[in-house]
Design a protein that fits this description.
Blueprint: E1 12-16, H1 21-35, H2 41-54, E2 58-60, E3 63-64, E4 67-70, E5 77-87, E6 97-106, H3 110-125, H4 128-136, H5 140-147
Parallel strand pairs: 1-5, 3-6, 4-6
Antiparallel strand pairs: 2-3, 5-6
């Protein structure tokens, strides 16, 4: 599986204005719904928000990777947002986030596919150069190009 193949222009937000964590999640889910990856937006949003309540998906370095288990997801999808302004996410390092990846996978595939995407992203996101490339990307095509290095 290629991470960059999961993204589409509808799921890349450059920049995303935010009204907070829930607003960011809802707007990114709208993009995934437009692609057909999410079929029941509200059920998926609630799954992601429930996951956030158990522990923050703000992993540090200004990055969050929200995700959730839901039958409202028809097929694997990924959304990316570069925030217009750093957004509070209750991150592990207590810092706001500027980069958000939202992972959507069908409930029945969640163990395998979800972990593969999460591990692949996490391995790259610890590198400052990779994060900086995402922060500097001006177009969806540039974001996709950066993600091809995964």
């Amino acid at each position: 599986m290629n991470i960059h193949d999961l993204l589409t222009e509808e799921t890349i937000f450059l920049p995303l204005e935010s009204g907070g964590k829930e607003d960011v999640i809802r707007r990114m889910v709208e993009g995934l719904q437009k692609t057909g990856a999410v079929t029941d937006a509200e059920s998926y949003v609630q799954a992601v928000l429930t996951r956030e309540q158990s522990s923050s998906t703000g992993i540090g370095f200004g990055v969050a990777i929200p995700h959730g288990k839901s039958s409202g997801v028809a097929r694997a999808g990924l959304a990316f947002a570069r925030m217009a302004e750093p957004t509070e996410w209750e991150s592990l390092d207590d810092q706001p986030v500027s980069i958000v990846f939202l992972i959507a996978v069908p409930a029945e595939n969640v163990g395998n596919e979800h972990l593969q995407i999460l591990v692949a992203l996490s391995r790259k996101l610890i590198h400052e150069e990779f994060r900086n490339s995402l922060l500097q990307a001006k177009t969806p095509a540039e974001v996709t190009e950066v993600l091809k290095s995964i």
